[in-house]
Amino acid sequence: MITGVGPVCGLGLGIGDVWRGLLERESALGPVRAFDASTMDSTIAAEVPEFKMRDFVPKSYRKQTKVMARDIEIAVAAAHLAGLDAGLSTHGYDADAEPSYDPTRVGCHIGAGLIAAELDELTLALNESRKPDGSFDIHHWGAEGMRNLTPLWLLKYLPNMLACHVTIIHDVQGPSNTITCAEASGGLSFGESLRVIQRGAADLCFCGGAESKVNPMTFYRQVLTGRLTKRNNTPADAVRPFDQDADGTAVGEGGGILTLEAAETYEQRGGTGGYARVLGFGASQSVNRETRSLEPTADGRGPMLAIQAALREARIDADQIDAVFPFGCGHPAYDQAEAAALRAVLGERLDHVPVYSAKPLIGNCSAGASAIDLCLAAHILKTQTLPPHANRDMPLPGLGASDPEKLDHVLVFTTGFGGQNTAVVLGKA
Amino acid sequence: MNQRIVITGMGWVTPLGHDLETVWAALLSGASGVETTRHFDATTFPTRFSAPVKDYDHNDYVKHPELHVGVGLNTSFALGAAAQAWAQAGLNGYDGLDPARLGIYLGSGEGSLDFENYVASNLAGWDAESRRVDGAKWAAQAKQSLQALVEIEQEPNMPLTHLALEFGAEGPAYNCLTACAASTQAIGEATEVLRRGDADVMITGGAHTMIHPLGVTGFNRLTALSNRNDDPLTASRPFSADRDGFVMGEGSGIIILETLEHATKRGAAPLAEVAGYGSTADAYRITDIHPDGRGGAGAMRQALDAAGLKPTDVDYISAHGTGTKENDSIETKAIKAVFCPDGDTAAAPPVSSIKSMMGHLIAAAGVCEAIVCALAIRDNKLPPTSNYGTPDPVCDLDYIPNEARDVGAAGGSVEVCLSNSFGFGGQNDTIILRRV
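ok -> structure tokens follow
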């Protein structure tokens, strides 16, 4: 069961703000605020609104927020929101209260990206080690300069620190893992939590992913992939998944954490309702030797294999799928592959099933992307409402449906950069 | 669910060599892979030595070199290790595999930064007045020096992506990066993928290098590395009283896993069984291990339970044994909590750390230690803890000091081995290997 969701993205922190933004088709994309990106080929991003970490950690943990990279902050905030949403009691909310679960029965699986060093902090230190001609002096750095970095500097940037902070704050002592597979990270982490619960190694897991790429280095890496939209002057219209005018995606900042619980223990702790049941999960790899798997093959074989695996486990037919949350990043090669995968699996039903993407509004949140999609898909099953499409004025063939006949089963899938794919089938709670 | 999962192929690229038998012989002889750091100019760093991979080119191993032009060192190491494992498993030329049922679960680290060009961009972007990096000035330099391929290949999923390209793997694909526990965790999770029946064959293991300026800087600032610059060859001294930190290594280990049923059906010889896996979080501090070793002990207990084994069944423990003050004493405490319930240290099996010889391969350390366990079972020999000197009163187990132990020659055998990996942030993983 998905029992709590904590999406954090350009539209806000928590499902309330994010959902409102989606319903109103509010775009979080705009000129990058974190640094001056005006001279790069892409100049826009959807950044998380300002927030204060102390609102998301216990008082006793405030000092530790100093060693959190932005990605870690987002994950910790998202986990806090998800646990609250699920009505959980943990040490992270009240150290004196009885926790909902034995800490050894709680797991944590959070996807992460290649976290960038904060350039201001690092360069302040590097700047002390220059030769007379201004270039970097590694001798000075080794002997003295590096001491200008805080001793714990490295720990701000280890990808597993997203999960580690969450485990420490919420006293999670069961299995914990960090998946680093670009956009598939969130979906794969969700799958790991599901498997851990299925095999009886935990009863509750925090899972999802988070990433921030609004740092000159990581942002520029995205520029170098050639996947970003050129429509810098019209950010709200720039990202157009499954639209014939699609020309690329945009950088988003954010993540999502969900609480996944065994239905039995959820009921034992007095839980009622919940968001959605998890019916099936699948993972696969695209092999595209033309692009070194930086793009999927046009026939969508990679995502198709993941979707088929998830449907097999869910034991439902493709025509029972009522809505789809694809990766839908707005890059033509990805959109085309995903459309082909969906056509292969859904056949004619694709013409009648809404295929929804929030990327026009929140960008591609990388390791957080599929986790946010899972939060949203869970929410539409609970509310039985699908937000309106954004930026799909001229849909690709078969991708124009917008009104679901019903909302009993939703397919969520991701086609990641580097070829890792995931698919999840969710059912109404 | 109760399928037996076996290893049918193994390969590694390590500071002690690039093939199974050479490295194993080096480990049994107590060799050292350490030398003065050459990857970059470390002459003024607090730590000036490391254990690099030497004289290695993945093009000697792969069948599709054109797919791997410009990869990072981590991916390069993974390709060579995987090609060895693939060959040993008898998969070269074998056409019975369904690509959609060939999966990969790696615990690989990120690629190395293009340090010179990265630093040049940062310094060019530095605005002394605001004490910040100016994005436009940064970008002006970056556009001149940073290359797309080099940057993209740093993404931590790239070793995985390249192995999939090389072997045409379309099944479930994961990379986990749980610091120094990553590749042990990957092996454990890969067995779970097979147990569920989601794949027929899994390629697993890890690859990593952090022998680069910011990697060494990071660990030097944490005071985790040995500073024994006057004696690099003996600097890695796990469990000795005078240990002063770990020695950075690099490399990769890759294992081919399949169900015993699948291996038998295709006539592949099982080398060892992965019988149990345990994984816990300390939930204590990002900097320190829980002083009781509760997470490590928990992972070992879980693995024993999963394998259906008792502590007394274990013949050898391949320790995480980094050579830091904290790890070795707390790991000892955790081992004793599981194996010496009555306080009798003789109840614990022999323990050793190959990090004393090949250094710490970070994300790739665990898989190399798992391979050592499989070879120990095959040959009934245990590798030593090299450079073992002054005993530490809080490290009071049998660490196989300095000399390999020929258990077979003494009339015994090595049936069950346990391997620990612990990562920064309180990440604990244990796997158990058993003779098939």
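The two ends of chain A are 8 Å apart (CA to CA).
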